[in-house]
Design brief:
The chain is α/β, with parallel strands linked by helices and 109 residues long. The chain is built from four helices and five strands. The chain has one domain: Glutaredoxin (3-Layer(aba) Sandwich), CATH 3.40.30.10. A five-stranded mixed beta sheet has the order 1-3-2-4-5.
Length: 109
Amino acid sequence: MAANGIIELSDSNFDAEVMKSDVPVLVDFWAPWCGPCRAIAPVVEEISASYQGRLKVGRLNVDENQQTTMKFGIRSIPTLIVFKGGQAVEQIIGAVPKGEIERVVGKTL
C-alpha cells in the first residue's frame, strides 16, 4: 500500500483486494502518460483520506495490467469504478470534480 493509503492494484491482486473486499472499493484506472489521470490523482488521494475505514481506494495502471483492463471494458481513462460486494456498481469516465466523485461514492456507502 502506498503512503497515501491508495493500494497499487495489479492483475494478480485485483480479486483479493477488490472483488473480495468487505468494504466498497474505488478503483482508479489510469496510465502515467495520461494528463487527466494525473490531474485527478490528488482528488483521489483526498477521497482516500476522507473515507478511510469506510472505503478502500486503489489504482490500476492500464498499460501494465491489460487483463483486468479488458475484463472491465476500460476504453477511456481516467475511469473510476466503485465495486461493492464483488460487483461494479458505479462508474465515472473522465476527470470530474471532487464533488461528483463524492456523490457517486456516497451512494454506495
